[in-house]
Structure to design on (226 residues):
């Protein structure tokens, strides 16, 4: 079965600094990969997704992620973080015929002024 | 507006008192699912449904029931809630056309005392 690891539980960055959130997955075939964001007290919003094709995908709010098959990774990046980006970020992998989706434990992002 | 709705958003109850959390989607999605979110564990799937009258267990189904009598609705039932079911619950839906992207409801925060 597929699984997802987000190695960083909590990350703090200064406003305007660059950001990279790590995600590693385990799956035997080409996975469907997602990043979701959860703002405090809110539901989950899809930032971006990878199904196939170009391994660098662009998402909403200025985020991008790169799929690296050799490293089983799908790291999320943003060149300049804004205070409103403070939230919890979840990486997920989808696979199988039953829409099975597995989530990582999440990375909480704090943005310092 | 395409959306997944959940009710109630907040619920405090006592051990053993049966409760139902409703979930409804207006996107005509075949697939619906329930997750619980706990700190450090990410989202774990409770039950899912591939279509009307078709439901199956996820990773943590103990203590929960579901039904899918109509395509748009997928209620989560706790027949005898216990304190270890205190959690944040999310309902999600998706189409079955090759995309595993799931659309999430706003969440229901349940406290069982």
């Amino acid at each position: 079965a597929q699984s997802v690891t987000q190695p960083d539980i909590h990350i703090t960055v200064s406003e305007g600094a660059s950001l990279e959130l790590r995600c590693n997955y385990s799956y035997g075939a080409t996975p469907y990969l997602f990043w979701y964001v959860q703002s405090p007290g809110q539901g989950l919003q899809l930032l971006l997704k990878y199904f196939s094709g170009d391994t660098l995908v662009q998402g909403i709010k200025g985020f991008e992620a790169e799929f690296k098959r050799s490293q089983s990774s799908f790291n999320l990046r943003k060149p300049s973080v804004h205070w409103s980006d403070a939230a919890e970020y979840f990486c997920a992998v989808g696979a199988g015929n039953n829409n099975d989706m597995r989530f990582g434990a999440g990375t909480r992002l704090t943005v310092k002024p | 507006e395409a959306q997944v709705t959940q009710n109630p958003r907040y619920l405090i109850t006592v051990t053993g008192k049966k409760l139902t959390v409703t979930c409804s989607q207006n996107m005509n999605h075949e697939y619906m699912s329930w997750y619980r979110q706990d700190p450090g564990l990410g989202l774990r799937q409770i039950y899912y449904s591939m279509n009307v009258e078709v439901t199956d267990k996820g990773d943590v189904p103990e203590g929960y029931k579901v039904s899918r009598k109509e395509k748009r609705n997928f209620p989560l039932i706790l027949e005898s809630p216990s304190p270890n079911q205190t959690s944040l619950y999310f309902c999600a839906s998706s189409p079955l056309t090759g995309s595993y992207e799931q659309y999430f409801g706003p969440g229901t925060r349940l406290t069982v005392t």
The interface with chain B takes residues 4, 6, 9, 32, 34, 36, 42-46, 49, 51, 90, 92, 94-95, 98-101, 103-106 of chain A (CB under 8 Å).
